[in-house]
Structures are given as C-alpha cells and as structure tokens.
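batch_manifest entry 22 of 60
target: Peroxidase
source organism: Herrania umbratica
requested by: lab member K.T.
priority: normal
notes from requester: please return tokens only, no post-processing; we will run our own comparison against the previous entry in this batch. if the run fails, retry once and flag.
--- input ---
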Amino acid sequence: MRLKITFLLLLFVLPLALANLRVGFYRSSCPRAESIVRAAVQRRFRRDRSITAALLRMHFHDCFVRGCDASILIDSTSRTPSEKDAGPNLTVRGFELIDEAKKDVEAACRSTVSCADIIALATRDAVLLGGGPFYAVPTGRRDGLVSDPDEVNLPGPTLSVSQAFQIFRAKNMTLNDMVTLLGAHTVGVAHCSFFLDRITSFQGTGRPDPTMNPGLVAKLRNVCGAASASNPDPTAFLDQGTPVTVDNQFFKQIRLRRGVMQIDQELANDGLSRRIVSGFASNATLFRTRFAQAMVKMGRIQVLVGKAGEIRRNCSVFNPRRRAF
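--- output ---
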C-alpha cells in the first residue's frame, strides 16, 4: 500500500520537477536555439550598441507585470489594448529584434522556443556584448495568454527607496536585488520629462534638486534646453561615465551626486541602500557577480512552465484559439 501511495505521489511531483526552468532546456528539442538568438543580437549590436539598454528595460518591464511571460510583446488591436499601450511601456523598444530572432528560431524549430525565453536569452547576450558578465540562462518559460495595460504598475523615477522596494519585495526580490538591478542604469538614457523638475524647480521650490551635482544640473539644462519640434523631449545618458558599458561606473557616479533620475540618486543617499551602493562602487567584480545572479533571479519571476500558457508562433499575437466542438 505504501509503495502504491509513493508511486502516485511521484506521478504528481515528477512532472512539476521536470517543468522547472533549467539551463539547456532546448538541448534536444532545438539545439541551435541559443546560438540563433545570439546571432540576431550580434547583428543588431554591431550597428546599435544601445540595444543592450533597450533589452534590459524590456526584460524588466515584462517580468514585473505578470511575470516573465512575454506579455509585453503583444500588439494592441482596435478592440483590445495590450501592455504596450501602458504609459511606462511607450518608450520600450527592441521589439523588432525579438521578432527577428523568433522568425529565425521558428525556421529551425517550429513552435518550440517561447518568446519569453528569447527575451531572456537576447538580454543576456546583449549584456555580454556590452561588457557585462556572462550568465547561464535557465530556459523552459512559456508565453502568457493575457496582456492588460491596466496591470502595468512599475516603479517610477520619483519613488523613494522604500517605496520602490515595496514593488520589488512583492516579486520576492531583496533590497540587494533591487539595487543591483537598478544598476542596469549603467547603460541607457532618460528623457528630460523624467527629471526636468530636478534641474528646474524641485518639488516646487523654484530651485534645482540640492542632491544633484551643480555641474550636472548645468549640463542637463543644456541638453533639455535644446528641445525642438522634431525632438521635443531630448535624452541624457543615465551613466555620465561609461554610458554604453555594463560596469559599476553608475554606482561611482551616484556617489558623486551625479544620478540623473531621482530614484538613482536616492540609492546613494538613503540609509537602506547606501552601503550596497558603496560596495558596488568600490568592487567591480562584486557588482558583476551580483548582477548576473539578480538577472537570473528576476528571470524566474512568476514564470509559466509545463503545460501552462503557450508557445507563440508570432511573438506579437496570441496563437489562434482552437474551437471546442
């Protein structure tokens, strides 16, 4: 009797264990999957190094809504809006790269590799090309069946450290994870509209944010003052030191009061996060190690595995639903 019960338990537990993410998930079903995605990223990176920042942002914005399920890739229709329509996602880019990689993968292995896994793999490859660490990406995610703009609740640029941490903690991420992942601002840009108050009238005081280096205030005023009809909302690099390289320079910059967005500067000022920032600023290897770990951890947030969700044939649309007869 005990043997029978144990066997029945294995029938239920074993499929769940097999369904977990694992490195090399496609080793048998699509052996070239990772190399195909890598080739697509390399082609794009050769002409556009900013793709590293774009993919990091896409991956983050995807995982922090419904989990890492590629719901951010779904196009809106005239009847149904998607996450792409949500305010924080209007400046997310790089979708065409994911589509290109998916098309190439589909040509090799039809309906096998998820769009969610392609985002995770492409981001890892772009981080490596941008000078960051290599990390093995566990795969086996499946694509979600819902994309709702009303569910997009991401940490904004004016949040305090404690406010931002509430959002990260809800996803089972630690404070160290949060500081590490915000270190992705070592690459990329911010539109002036996200920090204009800091260089003009911070919190209605009529003066710039006193926590920002005066030299940076003057520099950003020049950038934003160049707005025109063709470029109404200019951008500034988030990392004033090495803006297209994934390194620990961002943490050095915010310790010098050269954080562009308020949340970035808060990391160096707040007692909760100051020590973590100092550790990363003084130890490049520590940041690389923790960044790799935090990216893998983020990539596991609320993933769909096993028979959940679907493997989309086209990343921007859900698969046609089969009719029940």
